[in-house]
Write a structure and sequence with these properties.
By secondary structure, this protein is of the alpha/beta class. It is 40% helix and 12% strand. The chain contains 16 helices and 13 strands. Helix 2 (17-33) crosses helix 7 and helix 8 packs across helix 11 (290-300). The relative contact order is 0.12.
């Protein structure tokens, strides 16, 4: 790779061991990706809550020293290095733990305590601890064309596709190294030529709900591989949460880190701009009609019983708009005695929800709000039946929790399931 003067100085250790280790990691990463040089970035999200277990951490770092834990798990360094300050503006993804409910989450209180110490470490080095998978709703809102280094699957797709900023899929190590150095390999979705659409998805069904857009994304993922799809032939423009669902489902079922919604996304005012000048006749076309929609729905619904033990909402974290709708559906009602209702949101949404009164309505109904956490780390009996309005959650939760029986539907259906303990109908409407 061709390094600038400051990059070479970092690699040689002239700016301290932390930047040296981070640059060593990024050079290896960049070479593996075929990048010729680095780009500057001042917008990073890191994912520091991904710690496998206290037992594994203690085996790797017997001292349990937090700087050594960060060195090993975030910089892949065998040496203990102390990070004084991150160089780029950096926000944190969810830490996957609500410290108030340790027993509900895998790892219990011991892991919660470790993750809380990691959070304090991140605050010490200058990370803005947003603690959410929706940073763009909480103050980290990059502009069109801005170079970023983001983690979290749906947020990566949202950054590229909806905001028009640019990021690749970054992991624990690469994102942390970018935070320390302010550098990221110039490759993939950072390059103009890789952002052009190459597959048209022709929509032949009504697209009026969040569920509709989630099903569309989930259908498209396996069919496009690493290509950039272009969604066309829809009547009404999707709202924010529809686009979030599209992002989350498409990257869960496949690897869609970028897409174009014609006339909606920043780089897709027309088909010509979305494709870089290609005509429709030169592109592959996928048809998404009633049959494809029905098949996709059936893939996400795995339960043969209409019983529902757990309803999990907020994957990605619920926005205030979604919380407002949820409280209207729950007000004056009670969750079934044999059913649990969990709602996952970030700390900023939680603070506002409590001040507005949404939190009290949900609590009175028997729901539990988990802050800064994720439904995929619930400590749950694999025999339980889970319902959710998130295609992403329903896709991931069998592998992450062992739960095989799932229902996927609208928020309204999920609330009815929480109240009655049964799935309302179980067929696509």
């Amino acid at each position: 790779m061709k390094l600038t003067k400051d990059e070479q100085e970092m690699l040689e250790g002239r700016h301290g061991p932390a930047q040296q280790k981070a640059m060593e990691l990024l050079v290896k990463y960049g070479v593996a990706l075929g990048a010729e040089k680095f780009a500057d970035t001042n917008n990073v999200t890191i994912i520091p809550g991904i710690i496998p277990s206290v037992e594994i951490t203690r085996k790797v770092v017997p001292s349990m020293d937090i700087d050594e834990i960060a060195s090993r798990f975030f910089l892949d360094s065998d040496e203990r290095v102390v990070v004084d300050k991150v160089r780029a503006f950096t926000t944190s993804n969810a830490y996957f733990r609500d410290y108030a409910y340790p027993d509900l989450q895998v790892g219990g209180k011991e892991l919660c305590d470790l993750v809380e110490e990691i959070e304090r470490y991140c605050q010490r080095i200058g990370v803005v601890t947003l603690n959410t998978c929706v940073p763009y709703q909480c103050g980290n809102l990059p502009m069109k064309g801005e170079i970023c280094a983001w983690t979290e699957s749906h947020a990566i797709a949202y950054c590229n596709s909806i905001l028009g900023a640019r990021t690749n899929i970054e992991g624990v190590h690469s994102s942390f190294a970018s935070a320390v150095t302010g550098k990221t390999p110039l490759t993939g979705m950072l390059l103009e030529e890789n952002r052009k659409g190459s597959v048209i998805v022709n929509i032949e069904v009504e697209m009026s709900s969040v569920q509709d857009w989630a099903l569309l994304g989930y259908f498209t993922g396996p069919h496009v591989g690493l290509e950039v799809p272009i969604y066309s032939n829809f009547k009404n423009n999707p709202d924010l949460y529809m686009l979030m669902a599209l992002c989350a489902a498409g990257i869960a079922s496949g690897s869609i880190v970028m897409f174009h919604v014609l006339g909606v996304t920043p780089e897709a005012a027309t088909l010509e701009t979305a494709t870089g000048g290609k005509k429709e006749k030169d592109l592959r076309v996928l048809t998404y009609g009633p049959a494809e929609r029905k098949q996709t729905y059936e893939k996400l619904n795995h339960s043969k019983s209409d019983k529902v033990d757990v309803v999990a909402l907020g994957c990605p974290h619920y926005s205030l708009t979604r919380l407002e709708t949820l409280t209207r559906l729950l007000e004056g009602r009670k969750v079934h005695k044999d059913t649990e209702l969990y709602i996952f949101i970030g700390r900023m949404q939680k603070a506002l929800a409590d001040r507005i009164g949404y939190g009290e309505v949900i609590k009175k109904a028997g729901g539990v709000i988990l802050e800064d956490s994720c439904c995929n780390i619930l400590d749950i009996d694999p025999s339980k039946i889970i319902a959710s309005d998130s295609a992403k959650l329903v896709h991931y939760i069998p592998g992450m929790t062992g739960v095989k029986n799932t229902w996927f539907g609208t928020m309204e259906e999920c609330v009815e399931a929480a109240i009655t303990g049964k799935w309302p109908g179980g067929t696509l409407k």
